[in-house]
């Protein structure tokens, strides 16, 4: 997923016109950046930034921020006809003190003595060659971003502070200390006001980040004076990584120091946005354009957290679905809170391929509103997928397939000429389907015995399927099933009309089929499933259900 326009992509007049009027949110955000420079030249590099707090392992929310920013960056490239250089800086706040020990580390006691030290000074509890907890987590972030092919530059707060890249801003913050305090103090309670300082010294004795009041801030000398943990009065230069800023002033300082043009952040930061902006302005910077996205929730509706390790991890999603499905999930409704748990994966996979199939039939305007255009930086691949992912899952469920060869036996019969070699994308999905079924569907399968009405309905369905000609397609099978249901009072829906004018068919009929035959509450269109699985195999499944062999 590159944020740089492919050289093969032609920015035709149709594409440029469509981009100018597109209401897709990445274009809306990119237009804000262009307006930011209205009447003046763009800088040598327009800077996009994302932030990462390495207090825990990176999660999918972290990926989402980079993916979404990349989409805005690409939209900006198109609107400026690829004539303006850009850069995406992924910034790690790894100099922050470790305020608490994450729940998902292998040995919590190992980290106890290192509370409040900068994350890059905390020993690595995971083993390996990484020199600290922060370095390990930074490496995990880069590994994931590299897996997706993002075009980015990684930045470490520890490096920037220690290398003096923030020194000028820290000295300016000391000079304008009172102005910063006027912004911060009203946001704090009375007790916190009495001890607050935007400067956090790193204790030269314990190595911990200290939240202590300042006895003196000397802007001319560039020093701060405070009492260290043992009570001894200490004076430190505020430069060279000996002192850092509290996280809220740090946000604004970084924007000013780096001339950031665009940064998005979660809704939990929204109330602090005005603080970040004011600090940036006090330090003679121009606040970047913002985009506030809603938070991701776990299966219990709670915010996902790096330290808790709840929700889905990066590697877990990728074990069950292609990367593009995750990118789609990030694109859709970024200002709406969404559950980020395993049960969203199948729908995301099928939606991705549905959008991909539609793309080639669309005009330029519709293509630029299509999520796959943004996922693939304007150059979506041409992929044919004869079998949807949801249907593959049900095929695995009915056939108890443990390997891809079994599935391909059904697929090749259903779609002659389609093989793993001719359709590698479908072959990739068969592996995901087996893994997802084994881990999430199989443990929850619950077959139920049919009652007398259901037994008769299934028996009639089997007989009707047997009367169909060999090779009947999904539509013919679906219509045959509907004809069976229309004759049974329980499944008649008088709010719908059949083609003949009689009552339609209740969804309860197909729900019954999946509950009895597959042990699931729902499934894809029955006709498509039976065509793929095979009429003979579907009838045999009915026989087993009526004999009680499935339950």
From TrEMBL:
One of its GO terms (molecular function) is lysine-tRNA ligase activity. It is found in: Cytoplasm. A motif ('KMSKS' region) lies at residues 303-307. Its EC number is 6.1.1.6. This is Lysine--tRNA ligase. InterPro entries: aa-tRNA-synth_I_codon-bd_sub2 (IPR020751), aa-tRNA-synth_I_CS (IPR001412), aa_tRNA-synth_I_cd-bd_sf (IPR008925), Lys-tRNA-ligase (IPR002904), Rossmann-like_a/b/a_fold (IPR014729). The gene is lysS. It holds the Pfam family tRNA-synt_1f. A motif ('HIGH' region) lies at residues 54-62. Keywords: Aminoacyl-tRNA synthetase, ATP-binding, Cytoplasm, Ligase, Nucleotide-binding, Protein biosynthesis. ATP binds at residue 306. It catalyses: tRNA(Lys) + L-lysine + ATP = L-lysyl-tRNA(Lys) + AMP + diphosphate. Belongs to the class-I aminoacyl-tRNA synthetase family. Its main location: cytoplasm. It comes from the Bacteria.
